[in-house]
Structure formats: C-alpha cells, structure tokens
Fold this protein.
Amino acid sequence: MKFAALSTFYLSFLQKSWFTEILPDVPNVDTFDYIVVGGGNAGLTVANRLSENPAVSVVVLEAGPNVERLPEVYIPGLVGFGQSFTTLNWAYQTVPQEHLGGRRTTIAAGKALGGSTVINSMIFPRAEKEQYNAWGTLNNNDTAWTWDAILPYFKRSETIIPPTLSQLADGVRYQPDAHGAPSDATVDHPEKEGRVKVGFPNFIYPQSQMWHEASGLRPSPDLSNGDPQGHVGISINSLNARNNTRCSSVCAYYTPNADRPNLAVMTNATVTRILWDRSQQHTAQSPISSGEYRPLRAAGVELTSSDGVVRTLWVAKEVFLAAGAIASPKILELSGVGNATILMSAGIKPVLELSTVGENLADHVHGWANAFTNASVTRDLLRLDPVFEKDQRDLWYHNRTGVLSAAPRSLGLVAASSLFPSSDLRTILQAARDDIKLYARRFSNGNENLAKGIELQHSLMLDLWVKDRAAPVEINYEPGYSGPTSFEDRPRRKYSSVNAVLFSTLSRGRTHISSSDPLALPAIDPGYYAHPLDFATHVRSIELGRKMLRTAPLDTIYEEEYEPGPDRSVESYAREVAASDNHVVGSLAMMPQELGGVVDTRLRVYGIRNVRVVDASIIPFPISGHICSTVYMIAEKAADMIKEDASHS
Ligand SMILES: Cc1cc2nc3c(=O)[nH]c(=O)nc-3n(C[C@H](O)[C@H](O)[C@H](O)COP(=O)(O)OP(=O)(O)OC[C@H]3O[C@@H](n4cnc5c(N)ncnc54)[C@H](O)[C@@H]3O)c2cc1C
C-alpha cells in the first residue's frame, strides 16, 4: 500500500512528461563521415566535439530511447527509482561466479540516450593521479596518458557551479583550480559549448556530517584533485546546481547542440555489426592477423530498429565504438574481430584475429554494512511515509531543496595501511608478488601477450600498494538502506548504511559472445574475488564500514546491525552478497599489442584502419574512483586526436 503513494507521485510527474521521440530520424542520407555506435557517456561527447566542424557529418546510433524527461532521470534524489533499473537498464547477467558460491550477478548499464549517465548515481570525482600515470607507463611510457596530460581534458569536460555559502556551511569543499571553467550566470547560454554541469546538492543529511567524523579520514579539499586517498568529503555531482537537475551526457553534450544540421541521432537503433570494405574480406580459414600489413577498413554498420527493420549506414571516415565495456567488444566479435576459435564456436566468420578482444575485463566490487537507525530523516521515508514523500516532492518543486535535491553520497578513500596491520600487509603483498606470474597466466585465457600485460598491470598496482598510494577501497555513506535485500523482504524501518567498494581489483575476467544472434546477451565472467588480495581487502573494508556505523558520533543514531548481522561471518557474507559496482573496464584495453592490448594510445583498434574505441572499455585497469568523469575525459581526448589525425590525412 505504501508503494501506491510513490506510484501516484510518479504518475503525477509522468502526466506532465512527454514520451514521444523528439529526435529527428536520420534523413534520407545513408553515408556519414563519422558513425558513433552508442549514445552514452562517451558517444555523445565525441559526437558533439566532432560536429563542431560544420563540414563533417556525424550520426549517433543508440539502442535505447530518449528519456531525459522522466522524473527519475532528472530529479537527483530519485536515483535508482522508477524505470532506472528496469527498462532503462541492460541488466547484463554474469556467468555463475566461482568465488561467489556459484551465484550469477547483474551488471547494470544504461540503455537510453545518455547511456549510464541517465541512471548512475552522479558521483563525479577522479582517481589518484599515480594511477593515471600508470596508464602511460603501461603504454611504453607514453606521456600523452599521464595526469598532467589528461587534466586539461577533465577540465574541458565540465562547467562547475561553485558551492553556495549554505553548501559551504554544510561541509562542501572544492578547489577551483582542480576544475573546469565556472559557470557564468551572466552569459546567456554558457552550456552551448557542451560540458557537464557539475555542482553540489542542496540538501546534506546531518548523519553524513557525523559519518565524516566517524570515518577517521581527513576532510578532502576536493575529491577531484588527484589526491583523494585518506580523505573524506561530499562528492561533487554531475548535477546542474542552478536548477538542481541531473546533467547526463544528453544535457551536457547533446541538447545544447541538437540543432546542428550535421549531427543526427537515431534512438532505438541497435548496431548489430560493422561491415568491412569488401575488397578486404578474408576467409574463415585464414583470418588476417592484426600484425599483418594492410589493415581492415570499415565500410559502414548494420543496425536494427526496435520494430525489427534492418538498415545499413555507410561511413566515409571513421567508426567509433562507444557502446560500453560489454557491448563494444560484443560488436567487434559479431563483426568477425576477435579470437577466431571463440568466434567460430559462436557461428561468426572471423575476419581479423585479435584474440584479446573481450579479455582483461575488470570491475569494482560492491559490499555493504547497514544498521537500523533512530535518525529523524533517512531516504527510506520516501517509501515508508506518504506524507513525508509528498512534502519532499513539494519542496523540490517549490525551491529545489529537501531530500529529493540530493543523490545522497559522501565518500572516503581508504589507504591500505588503514585496512591491514602493517605486518599482515607486508605478508599479503609479498604473497601477491610471489604469485604475480601465476595469476597473470590464469587470468589471460592462454594468451601469452596478455599474461605479460596483466603481470605489468599487477606489478604497477602492487608498487602503489607498497607506497601506500593504491587507494584500494572507497567507503561511502548512505543515509538510508543500501544493501542486498529488496524493499519487500527487509524490515520497514530506517537505516544507516556504509557501502564498501573494492576499487583496486587484481582479478580479471572476460566477456564473449556465445551466439551469432546480435540480440543475445554475451557470456560475462568478471572473475569476482578470483585474486586472493581482492577478497581479503573487500572483507576488511566491510568490517571497517560495520565498525564506522558504531563509532562516535554516528553511534548516537545506531540502533542495531541489520547486515551482515551479528551471527554471520563477514567472509561468508561477502561471498553471498558481493555485487558489481557497475564500473566495468578493460575489455578492449589500451595497451601495446605485445602486452595483449586491443587499442593503441590513439585508441585505434590494432589491424583496423578506421575504427576507434572511445568508451570505458579502453581503461586498462580499475582505478580508485567512479569512472564517469574519466570516460568524459577519454572521449574529449579522443575527439582531439581524431581531429588532429583528420587534419593530417
Ligand atoms: C546504476 C549505475 C550507477 C553508476 N553510478 C556511477 C556514479 O555515481 N559515478 C560514476 O562515475 N560512475 C557511475 N557508474 C558508471 C558509469 O556511469 C559508467 O561506467 C560510464 O558512464 C560508462 O560510459 P560508457 O560511455 O562506456 O558507456 P555508457 O554510458 O553505458 O554508454 C553506452 C551506450 O551504448 C548503447 N549501446 C549498447 N549496445 C548498443 C548497440 N549494439 N547499438 C547501439 N547502442 C548500443 C547503450 O544503450 C548506451 O547508451 C554507474 C553505472 C551504473 C549502471
């Protein structure tokens, strides 16, 4: 019955909403200079920057619909409500996970124009600068991929709306020099240039402040400054603080420039494969090796619309894969690029042998500790109390304040030295070093080059562990229930929760097609907890979160632990509940080919002349941060490289 109130709430919004597609269908044109596959975080960014040049034509092909006008998309406090985790979610299923007791888990990813940026939690910090520097080290010390080289692209992708005096009084901190240009309210349309509006929520729960103290971490001057480890703070959000609405990649990079005549966006258009220049085709018996001269050339793409109509679009210059870290490798495999054995067993004719497509996949891992609380306001009340829900809705509409004005997270980045006693840490790290080859081989699926690549990744990460710069874990506080139990199955009470997110995963897995049906989901094996350091670290972080809930001053609102629960070992609980943090990376890694990479440092797929990958797939290993801002940075940098290369050709 209590749900009914929320449904009424949605309906009242939805009646004002508009569901019909407003985006122009592609006109009677079937050749474009650039084709962007996937209109998400990366895809709309690249499309915007390339279409700044009126002389080139750009089309974005997006499998999902345009949903910018759904309240659960634009109202910050409705993160996770409504259709976010149903129709707007690919909800990829993993294969049974050996180290999670054979459980399958779900990996969420946005299925809509804007991709994951329309359903994500809008947390927008950056990782440790040393980790970005390691991307360069991994790529023959390429100085184009270091913190200093990428910082201008982080800045270019955002317009900050600086905190107000009342936000500062509530504990918000920011360093102006870490950010892009501040939004200038005196300019008519500053958003015209295409940037993510970033800012802070209008409502900070009092218990978040208490948690900052309980965490024992230092207040962060700014969680985007490349030095978040050991700090705690209220995260900057991908949020237009002027009107307190989510700023997805649609808001940032499409809507402001939707009137460009050279930019077309097709929604409900699923790309099924890349079509190759016929003169370059090879036989199934002898797919060319990517090391050979005469690279493949993409001629266009095939797509299916939601009513089943198949259509072909041709490309004059380049195709960009921006379908996310699971769908981008899938499209390459459906197009005959990948491990020939895997392709043939799925019924796909190999065209180019590039055997690490879909390998090296990694994810952040989510876990929880939560307790019943006597705090007067928690997010749970939106579902438990219809009067509260109505009051909050009115508040949001009247002055953009209240619980609905905030996606409620504040973050703390925990150092390894705070998780383990120093002697234990030395032993654990020594064991990881001793076994470095063993695990690199195990995770490489028999590919010798990739084994070398994973070994180097692990070595770089373990160096950071030894220097105590790995930022292996994020602990973030949620003023409400966060955990593995559904609303229907848990006590109807108020909660205080700590999310424990394993950032520094050494485990690697893979995603591959198992059928030639382009609409079938791939077989995804993230290999959660396959490396013992991952498991040990995650267990310690859940224990730490659990302890924080009982630490002063948070102890004053603590009533009783709900999960893991007093009679449950954290080890077994972790295996029972650990879940994806929906930050999949690495499946088309930017690494040298002799280390098992799929794209070079200009993001070109090895052995293909005109296909680049511009999304989260290229991130070579998991970083100590939520990845959305990093994906914008990659796409901004990719657009610059594409323009530069075009000017030379
Ligand atoms: C629930 C959730 C919460 C998250 N919270 C945060 C957060 O708070 N902060 C943060 O930094 N990160 C967060 N993330 C992660 C982050 O949003 C994503 O990792 C990132 O946006 C991925 O960007 P991308 O461009 O690689 O892919 P996406 O943004 O997912 O874009 C891929 C697009 O391609 C489309 N597509 C897929 N297949 C096809 C096809 N065959 N043809 C055409 N189109 C196709 C998809 O529909 C999608 O629109 C979250 C993710 C999720 C799912």
